[in-house]
What we know:
The complex is a heterodimer of chains A (265) and B (210). Chain A is built from 12 helices and 6 strands. By secondary structure, chain A is of the alpha/beta class. A 6-stranded parallel sheet of chain A has the order 3-2-1-4-5-6, with helices on both faces. The radius of gyration of chain A is 21 Å and the shape is elongated. Chain B is mainly α and 210 residues long. Chain B has a domain at 132-210. Chains A and B meet through α1, α3, α8, α9 and α10 of A and α2, α4 and α6 of B.
Amino acid sequence: xxxxxxxxILVALAVAVPILAKIYFPVKRVSDSTRMVYDYIDxxxxxxxxxxxxxxxxxxxxxxxPVAEALxxxxxxxxxxxxxxxxxxxxxxxxxxAFELVGEEMGKRYGEDYVxxxxxxxxxxxxxxxxxxxxxxxxxxxxxxxxxxFPLMRRVKNYKDIDLLVxxxxxxxxxxxxxxxxxxxxxxxxxxxxxxxxxxxxxxxxAQQLVGVIPGMLGAAEYEKxxxxxxxxxxxxxxxxxxxxxxxxxxxIGNVEFFLARRRR
Amino acid sequence: xxxxxxxxxxxxxxSFLYKDNPFYKFAEHLFVGVAMGYSAVxxxxxxxxxxxxxxxxxxxxxxxxxxxxxxxxxxxxxxxMRFIPRLSWLVRYPIAFSLxxxxxxxxxxxxxxxxxxQMYGTLSPFGALGKLSPFQIFNAVLMVIxxxxxxxxxxxxxxxxxxxxxxxxxxxxxxxxxFGSAFGNTVMGRIAILIGRMRFLLSDWLHLxx
Lengths: 265, 210
């Protein structure tokens, strides 16, 4: 058997067995960047408005969907109003799913407590126009109903009425939100992003352009701990820890083997 | 039915671990086709219909000011001239328009967001040194050293000899740490995706876990 098959089987087992056995490791520490987002939302007064932008697709949903759900639960628990939009076509259904699931679970009323506006093409144009009038780019919700019929949307005109915008992102949309919404309109921003892009966003926290960053599945687990509602994030992080130990072991074994082989030559 | 299709397509994609094969190719091509079709339909339904078609209809039925939408629509249509060889030169106009507009909007905001504000972030801790803990001061100093040495590495107008060489070597170390961190995060992200798929297969498809 080739060595790579051995590695594939080990990795598959390291992921499958903890899922079947439902192994949960406690989350003992919460990173500063996740706590900053939590604290910011937690300090918002009741009735504040948070926009969620779903800028990711199904391939990154395991990392970001649990974060979206945890953030929505936190907002609804604190009676904070939520508006959902998607600038990625593939984000539309994921956002809809998160809003419908958590909205129903928390007994929130559509139109008063939350509204989902769906997808709009245009990216930076959408971001800029939202600063003038959200209704200019989102005049209907995801079911093609005019936004004027929703009490929540009647009091939200542009960024001035938004207390926080959270970008759930798998690409470069966070930088675009910083450039167009924060720099031009002074809109407070937070981000929940995949692990692949998280490193490049930390400098924006230091420069106070972002309130905080929630890093992928790790952030989901941390946020679930903060709101005390364990979910897929916590399970996922436990499995990830096991898989990481395996990866580290394999890297060490690979290096030892490499140096031994070189010495033999 | 949907779960079965998704599960079989997942297995088709993972079959690439064995080697490139027709099942993988089928799933890959299907994915690209479906993604493009979905985006096209969504852009037509949520973009073209409400923001072009509806405006045109209103323009011809009593709200003539809405006919202004014809101007951006024509600019947009010019992008498609690329497919007509005789008229493909017309594509230069929408590209020039987009580039000019995009650069005009993005440049000042981009400089503000990515240079001025970042410089502020790097230097601002030194304005409040008295309020910082020793560890925070260490972090602030480390960050300035990292920024300066990394910039020195990319400074090619002077030969990297003597002091500059050592500073740029330090820059390489910072770069390597950055790459290592990014790579570690990438591994973490990829495993998260595997966890998502595996959970789908074991839970939604095989019902081995609830």
